Amino acid sequence: MNTTLPLWVEWTVSILLVISGLSALIAAWGMVRLKDFFQRMHPPALGFTAASWSAALASAIYFSWVQESLSLRSWIIVVVLSITVPITTVLLARAAMFRRRQQGDARMPPVLVPREEESAAQAPASAPAAKNPETSPASPASNSQQPARGR
């Protein structure tokens, strides 16, 4: 086991740890500074992820040198964060959007409706059924598949 570190390893690890601390500090400052929840989601997702990548790289370099073999155990944390942070961010955004829609916030975009429900919602409920023989239920043409509408 190597106990003395060359100067380039010490400097590299130190610089990466300082970058990690600054990234976390900038992300925390962004959370305090920004006013809206949706604006506050972005800095921590990027800043804390960049901080964890820098710290994991510093850890990999340090322990690889000390153990005299490639040490990548710290990258498990990075892989888990890379998978979970975007998923968590999307779920939090959707929950906040749902909550604001329930409160009647006019700034929220409208709910997306599938095309079948959208066309049924736009048709007047009291209008009589169409008398087109091609689309009437008794017509054999109604049993065949209709071509899909494209945008």
What does this structure look like?
The chain crosses the membrane at residues 12-32, 44-66, 72-93. GO terms for molecular function: sodium:proton antiporter activity. Residues 120-151 have a biased composition (Low complexity). This is Multisubunit potassium/proton antiporter, PhaG subunit. With 151 residues, the chain is mainly alpha-helical. It has a domain at 7-103. Helix content is 62%, strand content 0%. Helix 1 (7-33) runs antiparallel to helix 3 and helix 3 (42-67) runs antiparallel to helix 4 (75-103). The chain is elongated, with a radius of gyration of 28 Å. The termini are far apart. The relative contact order is 0.08. The model is unreliable at 139-144 (pLDDT under 50).
Summarize the structure.
The chain is an all-alpha fold and 151 residues long. It is built from five helices and no strands. The chain has a domain at 7-103.
Give helix and strand order, one letter per element, not per position: HHHHH
The total count of strands amounts to 0
State the helix count: 5
- Give the CA-based shape: elongated
Question: What's the story with the biggest beta sheet?
Answer: none
Structural class: mainly alpha
Report how far apart the termini are: 65 Å
How much beta, percentage-wise?
under 5%
> What percentage of residues falls in helices of 4 or more residues?
55-70%
Please state the average pLDDT score: 79
Low-confidence stretches: 139-144
Cα-atom radius of gyration? 28 Å
